[in-house]
Amino acid sequence: MDEALRDVRIPPGVPDHLVMIRFIGSLVFPLALRSALEAGVFRALADGPSSVGAIAKGLALDEAALGRVLRALAVAGIVTVEEGDVVGLTPLGMTLSPHAQVPLAAVASYLLSDVTLKPLMELATSLRGGSASQPNGATGGWYGGDLKRSQAMDHAMGDYGVLSPVAVAEAYPFGNFPCIVDIGGGLGHFLAGLLKAFPAIRGVLLELPQTAGRAREHLKPMGLAERCRVVEGDMFEKIPSGGNLYVLSKVLNNWDDHRAVMVLRQVAAVMQPDARLLLVEMLKSNTPSYEEVVRDLVLLTSSNGGRVRTAGQFEALLNSAGLTLNRIVEARGGYSLLECCKA
Ligand SMILES: C[S@@+](CC[C@H](N)C(=O)[O-])C[C@H]1O[C@@H](n2cnc3c(N)ncnc32)[C@H](O)[C@@H]1O
Fold first, then answer.
1. Most distant CA pair in the chain: distance in Å?
2. Mind listing the pLDDT tens digit for each residue in 136-181?
3. What is the pTM of this model?
4. 77-104: buried (b, 16+ CB within 10 Å) or exposed (e) per residue?
5. Cα(251) to centroid(ligand 1), Å
6. How far is the CA of 3 from the centre of ligand 1 (A)?
7. Interatomic CA distance for residues 342 and 243, integer angstroms
């Protein structure tokens, strides 16, 4: 991590009361980042440095206010501001550029959007046992049918999709399974990666109608339409049969135990005795990582009973649905693959 950013969060050798004040004040940095992302600053800097004045003019922004936001991002190590107010992206800032090797802009925009931030602002309500203000919940369905929110999630998942599938794909012998059913597979980033890597396998993507439509559009130009069937449906009601491997990637963490078991029962109902189910999840550990607690609090506030779970908690859910946990494979990037079969 960039030293300047590290210093914003945990400055060494500073007295505790100042560390605390700095820690609280560090809230402004992600918000400054959100404003820059929204305004298009990272796209404006994608092809190289530019002056504050030129960026402001190009994006119709207030030059003075932009200069102040960019100074904050410079303190965080995300941009450089040189003589003559010339602004450039640091390697850290480059991760948000459209040309980034691992594109993060959609994930960042999603995590910093009202969808995530507004419920987090009401964390105190959750502490008192209140329900999430904008649940993914059982009653309203996934995002209560809100098209904009589910689209933002699809895009963010696309970027997450770039982060995890390579690590996941190399950790498990997906090529051994002639037909893979990806349940709640988003736009199909993960499945498409597998189909490209293993030309002999077929895929089935189950998604809610709105996302299924977007998934078809996404898969069409890749020439994978013949090998990947996109099925519109509801995983709580019916899962497509015929899979040798069923995948639930970052799906169960969005739901409470009752709903998670409902999905698992539907999977168990269509699995042949030799079929496998693979859960791709970040597991709760005894020594929580930064990523784990961020995800857990987002789930606490933005989902209906969703959470980061321990391997033991997953095993209990699986057993209640007539499934057994065979083994856990650790993938790079903090994800674990839980291989399961019928009990
Ligand atoms: C967190 S995303 C995970 C996407 C993908 N599996 C991945 O790993 O990137 C959860 C997905 O579950 C889908 N989903 C939510 N409720 C569903 C339901 N009832 N039936 C099918 N899919 C659903 C959402 O549309 C969304 O794409």
1. 69
2. 544 445 665 666 666 777 766 666 655 556 677 788 999 999 999 9
3. 0.86
4. bbbebeeebebebbebbbbbbeebeebb
5. 6
6. 36
7. 13
